[in-house]
Amino acid sequence: MSDEWPGGAVDFVQAIADTKLLLSHRYAQWMLAGPVLEDDIAGASVAQDEMGHVRQLFRLLAEQGRDQDWLEGDREPEEFANAASLDSPMADWTEFVVRMNLTERAAWYLLDAIDHEDFEGLVDRIGQDEYFHLDYLDARLETLAAESAATIGDHVAATLPDVLAFMGPPTREEASDDLLATGFTDVSIAGIRTAYREHYETQFAEFGISFEADDWTGPDPEVWYETRRRVGGGGIDEQTNKQLSGIESKEYVIQ
């Protein structure tokens, strides 16, 4: 393990790890509810991959002083720093594909920006999994967009504010990005957001889905909660918190 990470880095990684934890949980919730068997199998596989990523990130966070029991779910809903787009379960398959696609890509772009010795090799290994995860989600998104572009557009518009808040304000350019300045990351938040926007503008163009410039503005830095990477409060629903913490299963644990 290297020395202590620079200021803000632990919270940055915590948000990525918590988002991946919720991604795993939401995939698991849908692994028997997809439209076809192939989607169920894919969901189970991706859920397992994401949990593996979480374990590695939690290990690094524990080495930086975070309590292991707290990391693994012994916390209140508002103590999780996941992207707000994953706070509650998805109502249907289309909403699931959109929210998971937009959120998982954002989490990967943030993780891929880390340039620190503690992550050497780990980001590359996670990236190999993410390539297949995002390829699968993109294919499903494009299929659904071909069937009903308007529905996809509505779900994207509803999801974007939470995901953009998770990535961070557009004002985090090279001159004002603390993690970039300390060398913990090698891409500014502004640069990450630009790459993210370009991906979806290209992907949706053939389906006639477009967004106004204001749709990509992101959170106001004055009201952005950096520790949890969101605007305002809120958190995961109570049932999800119980499932993540294992409260409902503890009575069955063999001592």
The CATH topology annotation reads as: Ferritin
Give the assembly state of these chains.
single chain
Radius of gyration: 18 Å
- Which H/E pattern describes the elements? HHHHHHHHEEH
List the strand order in the largest sheet. 1-2
Shape: globular
Number of helices: 9
Q: CATH homologous superfamily name?
A: Ferritin, core subunit, four-helix bundle
Can you summarize the main beta sheet? 2 strands, antiparallel
User: N- to C-terminal separation?
Assistant: 33 Å
CATH class: Mainly Alpha
Descriptive notes:
The chain is mainly alpha-helical. It has a single domain, classed as Up-down Bundle (Ferritin). It is built from 9 helices and 2 strands. Strands 1-2 form a two-stranded antiparallel ribbon. The radius of gyration is 18 Å and the shape is globular.
Summarize the structure.
With 255 residues, this protein is an all-alpha fold. It has helices at 9-30, 37-63, 68-71, 93-112, 122-147, 149-167, 178-181, 189-205, 238-245; strands at 224-225, 230-231.
